[in-house]
Specification:
There is one protein chain. The protein is an alpha/beta fold. The chain has 2 domains: 216 residues, Quinone Oxidoreductase, Chain A, domain 1 (Alpha-Beta Complex), CATH 3.90.180.10; 131 residues, 3-Layer(aba) Sandwich (Rossmann fold), CATH 3.40.50.720. Helices cover 23% and strands 26% of the residues. The chain contains 11 helices and 17 strands. Strands 3, 4, 5, 8, 9, 16 and 17 form a 7-stranded mixed sheet that branches. The protein has a 6-stranded parallel sheet with strand order 12-11-10-13-14-15, with helices on one face. Helix 6 links the parallel strand 11 and strand 12. The chain starts with a strand and ends in a 7-residue tail after the last strand. The structure holds NADP nicotinamide-adenine-dinucleotide phosphate and zinc ion.
Length: 353
């Protein structure tokens, strides 16, 4: 065991602050990674503040961060996929049981005993729960370490490990492509990646935003049209017309307004995970035989496919790079929907702490 530098929070109402955490020494199958950049996902904030207590209560101290890009510093004796010096990524998953029906078909994210990168029981018992990427290093089983394409900016690559795969996976599964009309609700970290992927797949892309000032950015990011969701006339013009809508909103909102925009047999998939339950009108689903689904990140093979796609198409996240010392201000700005469009922490800043 060794100690790594990190930022943690000790309660739902405490700010994040500098600390040290235990990490295991790499086992035969582990890869040790020096973390270079870590994106800030809204899930970090939900967890740090224990907003998902009814589903997965936060164990403190909590070290968030699951959009990790770094360089391999050491590998265990049995590691074959990675070597010292490689640029790699780690997303929301660091282990699973490898043996359940879901793991056998590359759906590790649906494994009943998946180990998430933070706030998950630690299989190695180095600590009560896993600690995430707001840290200078991490040790991960080689099967959960992804290869990062060499042509991409690293700060903008980190968010692909969660925001990227979380939007890529449902868009792919829905068959989004030429001839399909696709809505993306909420232009934040997930939403802006959803726009980039839906556009790259060849769909007609419409962004729904509560922030009129994001209109120009939405078009620049790849949207064909932008609707300010408070404008009832603009919403009405799109009634019954969407094949697929991806809802990336982090807070309570009227989902029925979007269900009504779907064509018959259209689907709305939720990736946003608001703290409180959403109210659903049965009629918004019945009329039009519409369906409502959810989606959670993606499996490891699909995450590698997404990273390779991003390498081929030069897709990265639009990031504001910050030192870790600005993490608490960044959280407040995320809550105000004031981020363009993902914060990426330059982990070199942790050295000066
Ligand atoms: P984010 O960057 O904060 O973006 C959320 C966006 O939602 C905001 O930019 C805003 O967009 C919109 N929004 C915020 N408050 C709203 C409100 N009260 N009413 C309507 N719209 C509102 O968050 P993120 O990192 O993209 O994450 C989004 C959600 O997905 C979070 O709940 C997160 O936990 C969840 N998540 C799920 C998965 C998964 O696997 N399913 C993975 C990662 C994250 P506009 O300004 O454009 O309206
Ligand atoms: Zn995330």
């Amino acid at each position: 065991m060794y100690h790594a530098k990190a930022y943690s929070t000790i309660s739902a109402t405490s700010p994040l602050a500098s600390t040290t955490i235990p990490r295991r020494d790499p086992t035969d199958h582990d890869v040790q990674i020096e973390i270079l950049f870590c994106g800030i996902c809204h899930s970090d904030l939900h967890t740090a503040r224990n907003e998902w207590s009814s589903v997965m209560a936060t164990v403190y101290p909590c070290v968030p961060g699951h959009e990790i890009v770094g360089r391999v510093t050491r590998v265990g004796s049995a590691v074959t996929r990675h070597k010292a010096g490689d640029l790699v990524g780690v997303g929301c998953l660091v282990d699973s049981d490898h043996d359940c029906p879901n793991c056998r078909v590359d759906l590790e994210q649906l494994c009943p005993s998946a180990t998430f990168t933070y706030n998950s029981p630690d299989r190695h018992e180095t600590a009560p729960v896993t600690y995430g990427g707001y840290s200078d290093s991490v040790v991960v089983d080689e099967r959960f370490v992804l290869k990062v394409p060499s042509n991409l900016d690293l700060a903008g690559t980190a968010p692909l490990l969660c925001a990227g795969i979380t939007t890529y996976s449902p868009l792919r599964r829905a068959g989004v492509g030429p001839g399909k009309k696709v809505g993306i609700v909420g232009l934040g970290g997930l939403g802006h990646m959803g726009v980039k992927f839906a556009r790259a797949f060849g769909a007609h892309v419409v962004v729904f935003t509560t922030s009129p000032k994001k209109r120009e950015d939405a078009l620049r990011l790849g949207a064909h049209e932008v609707v300010v969701s408070s404008n009832a006339d603009e919403m009405q013009q799109h009634a019954g017309s969407f094949d697929f809508i991806l809802d990336c909103v982090s807070a309570d909102h009227d989902i029925n307004a979007y269900l009504n925009l779907l064509t018959h047999d259209g689907n709305l998939t939720l990736v946003g995970a608001p703290e409180k339950p959403l109210a659903i009108s049965a009629f918004a689903l019945l009329f039009g035989r519409r369906s409502l689904s959810g989606s959670i990140i993606g499996g490891i093979a699909e995450t590698q496919e997404m990273l390779d796609f991003c390498g081929q198409h030069a897709i990265t996240s639009d990031v504001e790079v910050i030192p870790i010392q600005q993490i608490n201000e960044a959280y407040e700005r995320i809550l105000k929907s004031d981020v363009k469009y993902r914060f990426s922490i330059d982990m070199a800043s942790l050295k000066t702490d």
